[in-house]
Write a structure and sequence with these properties.
The protein is mainly alpha-helical. Among the domains are: about 1-70, no CATH class; about 270-400, Tetratricopeptide repeat domain (Serine Threonine Protein Phosphatase 5, Tetratricopeptide repeat). The chain contains 21 helices and no strands. The protein has helices spanning about 5-25, 30-50, 50-65, 75-85, 90-100, 105-125, 125-140, 145-155, 160-170, 185, 190-220, 225-240, 245-260, 265-270, 280-295, 300-310, 315-330, 330-345, 350-360, 365-380, 385-395. The longest helix has 29 residues, at about 190-220. It is extended, with a radius of gyration of 30 Å. It starts with a helix and ends in a 14-residue tail after the last helix. Residues about 1-20, about 180-185 and about 405-410 have low confidence and may be disordered.
Length: about 400
């Protein structure tokens, strides 16, 4: 018998013996702690092996036994199982039953359960119930995740005013642990200090990510005009001292102008980055190069593509823009070199590989062009443009592929 099976048999045997001893009146001979431990581990093993019915039955045996005073907390585990099965109403029921049995003094655990209730309610589309849970967390122990989840509820309900309040509340959340950053005890241990500094940096990065995504989400919908929504978000970010996030939002605003074909407004926003840090300037210059290329101004497109590459040597998108200008000017050999460099800088840059194939076609190097498009087909097997170019190359080379879908005669 495999070791895991033997372990399950032992768990079952001990559990059966415990229940049988209770029925026979031999309660004094039962080791309650050991029985609890065995049943708990058995339920965990069932859960880990996705035997949900067996896990729930085992947990039920524990929580219904009045000898286990703290067993009610295991309803959280039962709720997690229902959540995994997407049985969200039952998950909420279990979480609430667990919450009723946990004292108010155990705030941290209560907030964790409330978060689970919020997640399950959100999955059901019960946004009002979800936001009540998240609001309670934000009142008692605010954090970025809960603040962002609360904002999603307001967004789902289309409540513009509460979206604004939720965004302001999210920005005001302090990074956990910042008050201990200058703690003398930490300073005495350099290793511990470095680990904590790294953890704080990671939390700060995560917090900025939540605020950035939240700003991009609500900006287009909180005002009658989407531009006014962006301006409101930008003004509040700058007021709160989030200049780096405000710069990210300005780039997103310019990209939105581009999507709406308002290139003049996009250029005006992006040119405002010329005196900012190099990283932001590289991104702004990349977008400017793209706009000028679309407008047919190849000289300006080349200028900003070279500028973007200068500020960020690993910017594959800037190289793609530069290669596009070279291709448009008929400089196919230079374009091939530029697209190859872009593909080396970022192996996932499909634009570089696609354009490299086109440049090889321009040089009439059909074998290399076919190799590029075949490589792309492994990444994007159903892309119509890739399939067309492969077929076109076979046609030019005089090696038509066998048609996998032969024509059918009509009856």
């Amino acid at each position: 018998m495999p070791p895991r099976c033997r372990r399950f048999v032992c768990f079952f045997a001990l559990t059966t013996w415990s229940l049988g001893s209770q029925a026979a009146g031999l309660v004094d001979q039962i080791n309650i702690d050991l029985t609890y431990s065995v049943c708990f581990n058995l339920a965990n093993q069932y859960h880990a092996n996705k035997q949900y019915t067996e896990a729930l039955n085992t947990y039920s045996l524990i929580v219904k036994n009045k000898q286990y005073a703290q067993a009610g907390r295991l309803r959280v585990n039962m709720g997690n199982i229902y959540y995994e099965q997407k049985k969200y109403p039952m998950a909420v029921k279990m979480y609430r039953m667990a919450l009723d049995q946990i004292p108010n003094t155990t705030k941290e655990l209560r907030f964790k359960i409330m978060r689970n209730i919020g997640h399950a309610s959100f999955r059901m589309g019960a946004y009002q119930d979800a936001l009540h849970s998240y609001e309670e967390i934000m009142e008692g122990a605010p954090d970025f995740q809960a603040g962002f989840d609360l904002l999603l509820c307001y967004y789902a309900l289309g409540d513009k005013e509460r979206m604004k309040k939720g965004f302001l509340h999210l920005m005001s959340v302090e990074h956990e642990g910042t008050e201990n950053e200058e703690d003398e005890e930490i300073e005495t241990d350099p290793v511990l200090h470095d680990v904590l500094k790294e953890e704080l940096r990671e939390r700060e990065k995560q917090g900025k990510h939540f605020v950035t995504v939240a700003g991009k989400l609500i900006a287009p919908v909180i005002e009658l005009e989407w531009v006014a929504g962006f301006d409101w978000v930008l003004d509040n970010l700058k007021t709160q001292g989030h200049d780096d996030i405000a710069s990210e939002m300005e780039i997103h605003k310019a990209v939105t102008f581009m999507h709406k074909k308002d290139f003049n407004a996009a250029v005006e926003v992006l040119k405002g980055f010329e005196k900012k840090d190099k990283g932001l300037m590289a991104r702004a210059a990349t977008n400017l190069s793209f706009i000028y290329f679309l407008e047919g101004d190849n000289n300006s497109a080349k200028k900003y593509a070279e500028m973007a590459h200068k500020y960020d040597r690993y910017n594959a998108k800037a190289l793609v823009n530069l290669g596009n200008v070279q291709y448009a000017n008929g400089e196919f050999e230079k374009a091939v070199e530029t697209f190859q460099e872009a593909a080396e800088k970022d192996s996932d840059c499909v634009e570089a590989i696609f354009n490299l194939g086109l440049a090889y076609k321009g040089m009439e190097n059909l074998d290399e062009a076919k190799r590029c498009f075949e490589k792309l087909q492994t990444i994007m097997p159903m892309n119509a443009e890739v399939i067309y170019n492969i077929a076109n190359l076979h046609d030019q080379m005089g090696t038509p592929t066998t048609n996998p879908f032969p024509a059918r005669a009509c009856h």
